Amino acid sequence: MTPTNIKYRILEIIPGALVWMTFIFALVFSFVRPLWVIIFIIIFDLYWLLRVLYFVFYVNISYKKYKSALRIDWFEKVREISRWREYYHIIYLPTAGESVEVLRTTFNSLCSGTYPTNKMIVVLGGEGRMESDFLPKAEQIKKEFEKKFYKLLITIHPDGLPDELKGKGANANWMGYRSLELVDELGIPYDNLIVSYFDCDTCVNRQYFAYLAYKYLTNPKPTRTSYQPAVLYNNNIWDAPAAMRVTAFGTIFWLLSELMRPERMYTFSSHSMSFRALLDVGFWQKDIVTDDSRIFLQCFFRYDGDYSVEPMYIPVSMDTVMSDNYWQGFKSLYKQQRRWGWGVEHFPYMLWKFRNNKKIPWLKKLKYTWNLGEGMYSWATSPILIFILGRLPLLVAGHSIVSTSILVQNAPYVLEWLMTAAMLGILVSAIISILLLPPRPRKHKKWKYSIMLLQWILLPVTLIIFGSIPAIEAQTRLMLGKKYHLGFFVTPKARKQDERDKQD
Questions:
Q1: What is the value of pTM for the model shown?
Q2: Distance set, CA 71 to CA 74, 97, 113 (Å)
Q3: Angle (CA) 98 102 105, round 5°
Q4: Euclidean distance between CA atoms 145 and 141, whole angstroms
Q5: Which tens digits make up the pLDDT trace of 236-252?
Q6: Of 137, 131, 119, whose CA–CA distance to 159 is shortest?
């Protein structure tokens, strides 16, 4: 359970307070000391240009590793390890209202890989409050797929259990304990179970489980490691509106760049880990929203910092946000980004745990605090500072005595040059986004590739509307207290009727 005392509340206030102090100071000083703000904005834009170059470098290297990993026969490498048959994969698929078509696509991807499905235990978990909707779908999936796996377990998470927040984490926690009963019944050693925790629309690459098994079997500390694949939101990318595609690719590229820096990584969305670690921490925390990242921190603190994330340059493909109409789709996209922004709830949790753990080196504490804090702060503030507030002091200074300053006179040209140079990042992103696209459905003409390139002019708008603003809202809600805390939002999964999801 999360502490509720005054010291913990102060930690919850810090992220939102820093964001709002930044905006207030930028506004006030634009009028009081515009020259100071102009100097700050130039330095800030230069810093972000360096970050863009840094980002482009890592995305390119990560993409090359990604393409290289796809060319390797990972199951052949697994079979060279004599003990591989002793291990089983257990796959958790929590669901809440998704269609049977979405579930079927996911199960088909599990069955179409190179790894033998008789080494897989699949757990499909529905919600008790949606039992009448879930059971017919579960029966259909069971009928079609039960015989293809070693075991297929269907669970129903009861509604209204104490100390729970309605969301995926509570369902996953229930699924974990029900699967433990099955594992004990089967007599499989806990260390020989490799867990994959997927959203129910996750379609795995055909080599995913072979690659994961190889990573696990060759890792010197397999039970002290989580395994993070490249997450691609492209199941339905060809049918999604442009703004949603750009936002989805922004997340994809961020994850690709993070794969190159595992010392910074948390688990995100669909990922894998050991059953031993999962059991040691009591499965997923059931009273939070962002359970997919919190499970990393649970393990990190359970093992006094001796826990890490191993990058996997192999894709899992998921749905980008879509709905029956644009307005509803944009609302859903905003809520999805706000839910991800609610990952700021890890900030007070992490600092509180650091305070009470003397075994983790202080340099590691400082590094994780900076990475999470700076990341959340930049997410909320940077697009607005660069594209909106950065122009205000120039307008103000243009009508004051400070306008005689050479710096002020040349600031627009300096900022224009920095923004032009930063366009390199957009250009590289556009090119790689085309390379990461799934095969073009026949209903879409070839000219749509040009639209896929031109859509990147929307990036400044999407960074603000679906980046800064939901992050600001999430941090503000955390700052204001429990009354304003977010609950779990289930992102709608919508696809065109003739969509055929494929994996490279």
A1: 0.89
A2: 9, 36, 14
A3: 155
A4: 6
A5: 888 888 888 888 888 88
A6: 131
